[in-house]
Write a structure and sequence with these properties.
This protein is of the alpha/beta class. Helix content is 43%, strand content 14%.
Length: 340
């Protein structure tokens, strides 16, 4: 059997799931008024970080924590918030279910977000968003991440009367998936020693998720930093054998482009994923993958993660691993000793 066949299919089919996200109206059933806490584990936590950053850009009071924080310090943490949103692809992860229990005991309204309609999370939360069409049925989360992120974007966009802007993102997705594939296929013909992914603000959660995909599928060395933070301690470890990906944002391009020039002193293996206006008219170091310029950059997270998914996929194949069967991982984390 072809290695990674399922993961490849899931990466390629994400635009189909996104169309169903836009067609659904279940996102209207939850209000993001007041102080809202988003929580998840692993990929679901990185999704929470990305969604919370977007919400704050729109003027909402949204924060994100890993579910472990609710379990370990719930009595101190939960009291600050009016509601809690718990994210779990399977809806069965121990920490997700324990977090709901902690929040409910403190009288907080709880929204559960999952891709499994039969999950215990659906019944334990006050309300639930369910995206069965986005369930990957793989160990690594792919479409489930991007689709649940888009669901948050649609809910947020509807709140500020900008929901129609997401149509352009979904329309651009099929072509972008192919362009990202072709670019990453070329980049990974020579595999790096290490991968660094740089992202800030609404792209930081995306950078973390991209790094996790490479770690899960390939078991190689990858790290995530903010673009300016990388010029401190991490800068010292960079060599010409390393690849650095910058998830650029037009509003930060003055600073991020300077970091790119500095990086070019140490390695020629550079890739920037950003809208065309990030690049300006200069000839910049490294390779580029252009996000569509007819979509507000605020909404481009589901697209920006796709090159990173492809990178993890091809790095795994190059390392002789099967993206469909990551080493030492399971689809659901069950900490069977129970909440304490």
């Amino acid at each position: 059997m072809e290695r990674g066949r399922t993961v490849r299919r899931v990466i390629e089919s994400q635009p189909e799931a996104w169309a169903q996200v836009l067609a659904s109206d279940q996102w209207r059933e939850w209000s993001f008024k007041g102080r809202v806490l988003l929580a998840g584990s692993g990929t679901s936590y990185y999704l929470a970080l990305a969604a919370a950053a977007i919400g704050r850009k729109l003027g909402m009071d949204v924060s994100a924590v890993p579910t472990q924080d609710i379990i370990l310090d719930g009595s101190d943490l939960i009291g600050w918030y009016d509601s809690v949103v718990v994210i779990s692809r399977s809806g069965e992860t121990s920490e997700a279910l324990w977090s709901i229990e902690v929040a409910r005991k403190q009288g907080k309204a709880v929204l559960g977000v999952t891709c499994n309609p039969k999950a215990p999370l659906v019944n334990r939360a006050d309300q639930a968003w369910v995206l069965p069409y986005a369930h990957d049925h793989t160990v690594v989360m792919v479409s489930s991440f991007s689709s649940m992120l888009l669901a948050f974007e649609k809910a947020f966009a509807a709140t500020v009367s900008r929901a129609s802007e997401l149509n352009a993102l979904v329309s651009a997705a099929p072509d972008f998936v192919k362009r990202a594939h072709d670019a990453i296929y070329q980049v990974t013909r020579a595999l790096p020693r290490r991968l660094y992914i740089l992202g800030a603000g609404i792209r930081y959660g995306i950078a973390l998720e991209g790094a996790l995909k490479s770690l899960e599928m390939s078991n190689q060395t990858v790290a995530t930093y903010g673009p300016l933070e990388f010029r401190h301690g991490p800068w010292g470890s960079l060599t010409e054998d390393d690849l650095v990906v910058i998830l650029g944002q037009p509003q930060y391009n003055v600073h991020e482009r300077q970091v790119l020039y500095d990086l070019a002193q140490r390695t020629q293996r550079l890739l920037t994923v950003a809208q065309p206006r990030w690049f300006g008219t200069e000839s910049l170091p490294g390779e580029a993958i252009h996000l569509p310029d007819d979509v507000d950059d605020l909404w481009c997270g589901p697209l920006a993660v796709i090159p990173l998914q492809w990178f993890g996929f091809y790095w795994a194949l190059g390392a002789g691993r099967d993206p469909d069967a990551p080493k030492n991982l399971t689809p659901v984390v069950d900490l069977s000793y129970g909440a304490r």
